[in-house]
Design a protein that fits this description.
- By secondary structure, this protein is an alpha/beta fold.
- It has 2 domains: 239 residues, Rossmann fold (3-Layer(aba) Sandwich), CATH 3.40.50; 91 residues, Hypothetical Protein Yjia, Chain: A,domain 2 (2-Layer Sandwich).
- It is globular, with a radius of gyration of 20 Å.
């Protein structure tokens, strides 16, 4: 009987820590050949660039296949399946395939794609891992009105879908075989206990959740779940089962070119101000800093902005600053672009 290669789908909202978890996974692979398929929402391959620049031995650039401009679940025939077939047809196929979905992707259509005739006898979905940004959840990011979240909970346990983020969260949790409550170090013990209880109530029976910091989860926990998720679709409810289609009309994305940066802290402070003033969910990208040979990686979730130097600029590589902005529909692109460029 042909042994099917296991594939792990890593899902979770924008900035939850999926790429950090993959970097940790790569650095603790212990010789296992891992192939990565990374999906982006936007026109800059930030996540793939982060992984390619990770410096982990064995993480060659041709081990990372990037699918850009749109979510995997909307382009399975045109992009995703050919990417999987490319990996399977290698002279040395991978031991395990890891798929990082866009933070706006619904996981169930992707799992369904593994029933495609060309791959169903060669790959099995070992498990769907959903990464949750614990402090963002605690702050009410997934509700339309964060200030009213607690009052609504006390009044009615069955909250209506007032925000597309709520529905997206439910989709990602409903399909999960394991949930990682990431950035646990940024949440106090009381809130972590509450988050665990609330998330646990949304999960299918026997699905567990674990706490993590910086995406550091033992590969033995993430890989080898043995869920065969493609054969278990009926137990994973989804709103698109009734709707019959899926789009991203609730979200918008665009990129902004910036001048060379003089002060990373000032850039971070300005980013936080702009995010606070507009309906921005996520910012990620790279910046060139005056007098520095290293590239600055910039990531923001809500008003939390992180930046660090990830690698040196390569010979012949254009030193430029470019950020991807992702927000809800209605975001004033012109004003955001002007505000960021003024930084």
């Amino acid at each position: 009987m042909t042994i099917r290669i296991p594939a792990t789908v890593i899902t979770g909202f924008l900035g939850a820590g999926k790429t950090s978890m993959i970097r940790h996974l790569l650095s603790h692979a212990k010789g296992r050949r891992l192939a990565l398929v990374i999906n982006e929402f936007g026109d800059i391959g930030v996540d793939a660039e982060i992984v390619k620049g990770c410096g982990v031995q064995g993480c060659e650039e041709d081990a990372v296949l990037e699918l850009a401009n749109g979510c995997i679940c909307c382009t399975v025939a045109d992009d995703f399946l050919p990417a999987i077939e490319t990996l399977l047809d290698r002279e040395e196929p991978p031991d395990h395939i890891v798929i990082e979905t866009s933070g706006l992707a619904l996981p169930k259509p992707l799992v369904k794609a593994f029933g495609w005739p060309s791959v169903r006898t060669r790959v099995t979905v070992d498990g769907v891992v959903t990464v949750l940004d614990a402090p963002a959840y605690a702050a009410g990011l997934f509700a339309a009105d964060p200030a009213a979240v607690q009052a609504q909970r006390e009044a009615d346990d069955a909250l209506d879908h007032e925000s597309p983020l709520e529905e997206l969260l439910e989709e990602q949790l409903a399909c999960a075989d394991l949930v990682v409550l990431n950035k646990a170090d940024l949440v106090d013990e009381h809130d972590m206990r509450r988050i665990g209880e609330e998330i646990g109530a949304m999960l299918r029976p026997a699905v567990k959740h674990v706490a993590a910091r910086e995406g550091a989860v033992d590969p033995a926990v993430l890989l080898g779940l043995g869920a065969a998720a493609e054969d278990d679709l009926d137990s994973r409810p989804s709103h698109i089962d009734e709707a019959g289609e899926h789009d991203h009309d609730d979200f918008t994305t665009f990129s902004v070119e910036l001048d060379e940066v003089d002060s990373p802290p000032r850039l971070a402070a300005r980013l936080s101000e702009v995010i606070s003033a507009h309906r921005i969910l996520r910012v990620k990208g790279f910046a060139a800093v005056a007098g520095k040979d290293m590239r600055l990686l910039v990531q923001a979730v809500g008003e939390r902005v992180r930046h660090y130097y990830d690698r040196e600029w390569r010979e012949g590589e254009a030193r430029r600053s470019r950020l991807v902005v992702i927000g809800e529909t209605g975001l004033d692109e012109a004003r955001v672009r002007e505000a960021l460029q003024a930084a």
